[in-house]
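Schema walk-through. Below, the input block comes first and the output block second. Nothing else is stored per chain. Lengths vary across the set, and this one has 243 residues.
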Amino acid sequence: MREVFGYVWADSPLHRLGAPVKIVGLVCCVVLVVLASTPLELAAAAVGVAALAVLSRTGWRAAVRAAWGMRWFLLTVLALNALLFDGADPLLVFGPARLTLEGLAQGGRIVVRTLLVVVLGTLLTATTRPQELVDGVRSLMRPLGRLGMPVEVVALAVGVTVQFVPTLLRESHQLMRAQQVRCGGVEARGIMRRAVSYVRLLVPIFVSAVRRADELSVAMEARGYRLDRPRESARGGVRKVRQ
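--- output ---
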């Protein structure tokens, strides 16, 4: 995988599956991962996710990069559960915080579940083209359209999100590299200075997201895009989208 959350060209059983099947499978896998509680169940879930990664033939680097990018969040979750979980016989006491084995186990379960869900989402976007993913969401939600659900709006939101996330991630990395060139390595600073440096990146990232959203809106208006017009699917053909 060259980019996190990006499509990877390959010939695998997962690539050949239809997008609706993969979306339903993702939901089922996420439910199973969330319900896994014992170490044996989590290990079985991890083996299943690893098997899907091998079956996809997309490599493992993107999943590792996604997990590495969440390292501080995961460490924070682990620390909060380990120190604030109400358990007996604390290992260490830091004022109101109590380090317990139960808290460590709870934090470890949450971290493993989060990593597995991230890998599953990465596999979905790596084996499904954005337009196919949009068509899959649209086809699965079509019955809800008869109940008044804005199916086309939801499908459009999914498509825009899938295509915007890799772009924003790429621009974030470029901004971080530019900051390192101008101001030196962020890792060499203290914790507070590093936090301030990362906060400063939020403004240009937000501005970039707003600018790209405005450009997309202008492009859609210029091409006469309307939600109530016939839409071409990824497999070809024109069909009417009913609201």
